Amino acid sequence: MKRIIFLLLIFSAALMAQEEQKSIELPDFVITGSQSIQIPKAEKVKPELIPIISKDFLLPNYSPELMPLLIESVPVRHIPGISADDYYIGRLNVGLGLYTYPIGELNLSAPFDNYLFGLDIWGKNIKEYTDYAYFNTSGVSLKNDFFVSPNSDFLPGTSVGLGGLYERFSYRYFGAATPDSLSENDLMNFNFSVRNKFIRKFNFDFDFNGRQFRHNNFDLNEKLFSGKAEMSVNFSLFSLGGGASIKRQMTDHTNINFRENFYSFTGFIKLYSLSDLIVTGGITYSSDEDNSSLYPFVALNYKIDEGLSAYAEYKPRVEFIDLYSLYKQNPYLKNNFIGNIFLKNKSAFKAGINYGITDILTAGVWTEYKASDNYYYFLDNEQTGFYNLFTENDVKTYSGGVELILKSQIPGYLNLKAGYYKIKNSAGMIIPFQPEIRFDATYMKEITNNFNIVLSYRFMKGAYTDLTNTDILPDYHNLSFKIEYKMFDNLYFWTDFQNILNKSNFVYPNYREKPFDLIGGATYRW
Q: Which interval of the chain is the signal sequence (predicted)?
């Protein structure tokens, strides 16, 4: 009887999605094409198969550094540990909602001794809620992971990865003066890597990545080829290592061709000889066609007690911000430039304290200061809803935060992150669209063997919309709740209540995020 009642609830949600129409928003425009490959340990490598808890049931983490400027309508959720007994090799997830209609994802994974094959296919459509608001995406990714046996005589424990991705996405500039303007884009990515962290005396990591991003509205085409090599030789009292990173950017726009090379080289020494203290020091050289920099760095990690440690680092560095990365942060960026940003963090200091008890509890507090040149931000000062890119020198970042992760069967899984950020230019004005306060919370609980819940909340405050700091965005509140019910061993039904408070949330003026959305769906695993 319980199962019948729950089924009626799920399909009622789906039926409501067909009948009810309100207003919507453009969701997060963050597309990733990176590969994450696990390094095998001495025991037999376990394949990365499909967990019982669906990928949609749990969302990814966010960095305590600069948060992406376009925020997803659902608060961030974090994946707790999943038992190896819960793995499947395939998953099909489908759903529909008031505004999210339809959504689908297929995941396949097949292990063969020292080889793992993975295939993902997905699609998502956000219906028009307010006038012209629209988002649609679909894509496919393929990855192949090869593992050398830990017992091999040649490079034991080495992993080789080969993968690719294609994704297309389209949306409208519904907050602009011409809201019917449609943006159609696609992304292709290829990755090859060879890594080994198993050999105690010698570790290496080689990676090659090729990516093409096309923004069809502006007839813009960016190709980026990047290579990375890192190696370290480890002794009982110290390690010596170094790395090199090379990027080749080729950007074409109508009759304009832009070419840029970026190089970065690092050398370091890590000392273990001091009791309870690890010291790392080195130097990094970075250069593009017009700029170069040479920065030393040092990092300290001190074990205070069992599970308790403190760290401090001084690490100035250069970041090469390519065109796709800029559009990923702000999809409403107008093409007022061709090229990239050579962001110089000429001074960067970070310190913190971490506490952990095995895998049950981890907690940390941190603070950071940075002084940056060529710091970039966005303003729609010429055309409403179409953003231009600006840069400033001598920008100061003051930030600090706390994080707590609790993993336990009885109280459940809890993740809390809170951060305070003050980012000012040389005149003391706050950089636009950088929230001063950012908070994320996720609580997950397995109520019974058949019933899971996730409660998530995101809050942001203090984001100005101009450099004069006269206008500020309303506070951002987003509360979401998801339930998942196991009908049979391989079949799950779920309902996702997004933006329960139905708040009018904005990351950019006039671009309202999705109001309350109710999504119902099913997941089948095999």
A: 1-17
What confidence score (pLDDT) does residue 18 get? 42
- How far from the centroid of its chain's Cα atoms is residue 153's Cα? 37
pLDDT < 70 stretches in the chain = 1-87, 335-338
Cα R_g (the chain), whole angstroms: 24
**Residue type, position 21, single letter:** Q
Give the Cα separation of 214 and 99 in Å (integer).
Answer: 27
What is the CATH classification number for the domain harbouring 422? 2.40.170.20
> What beta strand segments (E) does 11-114 contain?
50-51, 87-88, 90-97, 100-112
Q: Is the peptide bond before 150 cis (omega within 30 degrees of 0)?
A: no
How many domains are there within the chain? 1
Domain with 362, as residue range(s), is 2-525
The b-or-e profile of 305-315 (16+ CB within 10 A means b, else e) is: eeeebebebbb
Q: Residue 487 is which amino acid?
A: M
Q: What does the block give as tokens for 33?
A: 């094409």
CA 460, CA 456: separation in Å to the nearest integer? 14
pLDDT digits (tens, 9 = 90+) for 399-409: 999 999 998 87
Contact in structure between 424 and 430 (CB atoms under 8 Å): yes
pTM: 0.83
Give kind and range of the element (H or E) at residue 113: none
Task: Provide the 10 A C-beta neighbour count for residue 67.
Answer: 18
Secondary structure of residue 327 in the 3-state scheme: helix
30 CB neighbour count, 10 Å cutoff: 14
Residue 238 in contact with residue 270, Cβ under 8 Å? yes
Whole-number Cα distances in Å, 478 to 213, 362, 441, 513: 31, 25, 11, 10
Comparing CA positions, the residue from 441, 480, 433, 439 lying closest to residue 459 is: 439
The 8-class DSSP code of residue 330 comes to -
